[in-house]
Amino acid sequence: MSPRPLIIDCDPGVDDAIALLLALASPDEFDLLGITTVAGNVPLALTTANARRICHLAQRSDVPVYAGCPRPLLRSLTTAEEIHGASGLQGANLPEPSLPPPAQHAVPWLIERLTTASAPVTLATLGPLTNLAVALIQCPAIAQGIDQVVIMGGALGPGNVTPAAEFNIYVDPHAAKVVVDAGLPLTMIGLDVTHQVVTTPARLADLENLGTPVGQAAAGLLRHYGQIDIDRHGLVAPPLHDPCVIAYLLRPDLFTGRPMQLTVETEGSICLGRTVASAPSQAAPANATILETADAAGFYALLTERLGKL
Ligand code: BDR
Ligand code: CA
């Protein structure tokens, strides 16, 4: 099998960084065409610099990083420095690569890449969906170049920004609605799944024991990450969200899910950004696969094995 063409849209962010490392460590499975960045966990200049830092760490500076939208479609930007640190990569001190990033904006690059793709491209989205929504609005024909979109976002249970909403959807609910309503083959990996994937001390030690710069950086990042969620959600250890998207593409057998009808709340004040999934019907057919379970031990074994290759 030839590697799957992949674009990762992200807002690094600690867990985005681990997701990027997992993808960068998997060249047999992924032909990583590019990384697009969006404002989310931290402002755009930082998410872009952080994506480039991670490529440099993985010795994959050949992967282009395109900066995208600096704010959500309608709302003002909400960031998450209390979780990811002021730099967005709390726990790692990585130099910024010296070469300038590509001048092209992420949205025209996405449109160009997806409308000229010789094989359909998989999109992994790890942040607010602003870039993909703008690309779909400007050029609906990009849908023909998309194989599937796998989203980290949403929650059927409690949210993590408000009782109702998960961060990526809450930050830009209007963009999420554009993407969900676009009729693309969509998989949603929400908090219900990612809260099953927790970084126990033993799993953290496995990463640290790799004894490599990547293993050290990953362990440093994860040592500080997600503590807030332990108290907030009564978890036994911090959850790891975004790498689930990459792990699902590598090993779908580690996850279960089912087709459902997905909608996004964009109007209510209490439930703004809520993802609502219901059993499909003739009137409202399934428009997304909603993942429900993850094999956390299998996930961390995969992550550790792959990061050991970098
Ligand atoms: C999501 O929000 C961000 O803070 C993380 O990077 C992840 O994408 C989890 O709700
Ligand atoms: Ca993210």
TrEMBL record:
The keyword Hydrolase applies. Residues 6-300 form the Inosine/uridine-preferring nucleoside hydrolase domain. One of its GO terms (biological process) is purine nucleoside catabolic process. Keywords: Glycosidase, Hydrolase. GO terms for molecular function: purine nucleosidase activity; uridine nucleosidase activity. It comes from the Bacteria. InterPro entries: I/U_nuclsd_hydro_CS (IPR015910), Inosine/uridine_hydrolase_dom (IPR001910), IUNH (IPR023186), Ribo_hydro-like (IPR036452). GO terms for cellular component: cytosol. The keyword GTP-binding does not apply. It holds the Pfam family IU_nuc_hydro. This is Nucleoside hydrolase.
